[in-house]
Design goal:
275 residues; alpha+beta; Alpha-Beta Plaits; three-stranded antiparallel beta sheet; 9 helices; 13% strand
Length: 275
């Protein structure tokens, strides 16, 4: 067995060829030991990376599930922006509810009565479960969000259906608008989607993101098809440039199927609610 390297091996130069051979053998043995140690460390790192990836995947799934449940719990609510409300009214949930009902909800639902969607408008307490004012965002200090939680999701749909006509015909309410009550995560996903170059329009329906692309402006897609559309389509196109023709064909077929399924589903659905 070759001798182990020590500091005195270098302080005392070898005097013969045998000493040189022994010194080199010791160096090789040390390098082999280091290689073995590094290989062991690499295996441990690979296992740790796999464990981290599994935990990150699990965390992402749990986070998505929590967001889904939170968003589902908000599907009876809406957000009202731009309505001027005095400080005294804003501090009282009952006064806020009556104020929002009188100035916004009741006038909007009058159109639903005219169109015979409903026979009469519910009174304030039958319509609104709870209503409160949120602090104004720092980037829009003049816009005070008001959360309105309704008893009926069907009435909420009617409010979204007729809100545009109401706001467009009331110049006194300029800058006032209604949106869905989105979670922070859903709102971020929506804004990221709107920022994408190929996105034509993006909105939400009952907390679920929908969008159209510049390539297919008449095809409405759901947000859970986002990764498939942008990654598969564009990844397939660039992959095809490098000779991966099969991958390109699969991506295009997948995109065509998404468009067909979405079109087929839309045949039986109601008109979409645009924010």
């Amino acid at each position: 067995m070759p001798p182990k390297l020590r500091k005195d091996n270098f302080d005392n130069p070898p005097e013969s060829l045998a000493d040189v051979v022994n010194l080199l053998a010791g160096i090789k043995s040390s390098i082999d030991t280091l290689d073995s140690n590094f290989e062991t460390l690499n295996l441990k790192l690979e296992k740790l990376n796999e464990r981290v990836e599994r935990q990150e995947s699990s965390y992402s799934e749990i986070k998505s599930e929590i967001n889904y449940l939170e968003q589902r719990g908000r599907n009876n609510s809406l957000r009202l922006f731009g309505l001027k409300i005095d400080e005294t009214t804003a501090k009282c949930a009952m006064k806020t509810s009556k104020f929002v009902y009188k100035n916004i909800l009741h006038p909007i639902l009058c159109k639903a009565v005219e169109e015979k969607d409903i026979s009469q408008i519910p009174d304030a307490l039958s319509l609104i479960e709870y209503c409160y004012v949120l602090p104004a965002p720092k980037n829009h200090p003049s816009s005070t969000p008001i959360i309105v939680r309704l008893h009926s999701r069907l009435i909420r749909l009617l409010i979204f259906r007729y809100k545009r006509d109401f706001f467009s015909s009331n110049k006194d309410l300029k800058g006032c608008f209604i949106t869905e009550d989105l979670t922070s995560q859903t709102c971020c996903q929506l804004n990221e989607l709107k920022a994408k170059e190929n996105t034509l329009k993006a909105w939400t329906l009952n907390g679920r993101i929908k969008f159209t692309t510049k390539d297919s402006p008449d095809q409405g897609l759901f947000g859970d098809q986002l990764d498939d559309l942008f990654v598969d389509l564009f990844g397939g196109l660039f992959g095809g440039l490098y000779g991966d023709v099969t991958y390109l064909v699969i991506c295009l077929v997948n995109y065509s199927l998404i468009c067909f399924v979405t079109w087929f589903q839309s045949l039986g659905s109601n008109s979409w609610i645009h924010l």
